[in-house]
Specification:
Layout lengths: L5 H8 L3 H9 L18 H15 L4 H12 L3 H38 L7 H7 L27
Helix pairs in contact: 4-5
Length: about 160
Amino acid sequence: MPRMTIGRFAREAGVGVETVRYYHRRGLLPMPAAGSTSYREYDEALLRRLGFIRRAQAAGFTLEEIRELLRLDRGRDRRSVRQLAQRKLVELESRLADLRDLARALRAVVHACDRGDLAAPCPIIEAFERETTPGSPEALPRTPVGSGRRQGVQPS
């Protein structure tokens, strides 16, 4: 594949030009040298790296974690990469458990709404208003599951 301008590079990767620039600023993508046309020219290796970044994000890794994975790969530190991936797996499994609890709680209040007295206050609204333990069958968590864990998400 021939070298690409930033616009073509972004299109090939399925992201916006601003996303590419954001990754440059964050130090995840090196800035390519200017070519014979005085435009910076991107190559297949950078396209693969950008693909890695996007897939790692989709797997739940933050940009800081991705930076660490890239750093570890340069040193071929497989043990540390595995440990980082194992921590991410534990975190994702915890988030899945939280989501299952949330679904169970929401199912319970939807069911209560279906069979409730129309003159009584709405059980769904009440569940969101009262303070309860997250995941309890009669209520819903006060904060979104996994809130604050998607750090480093940028426009695409």
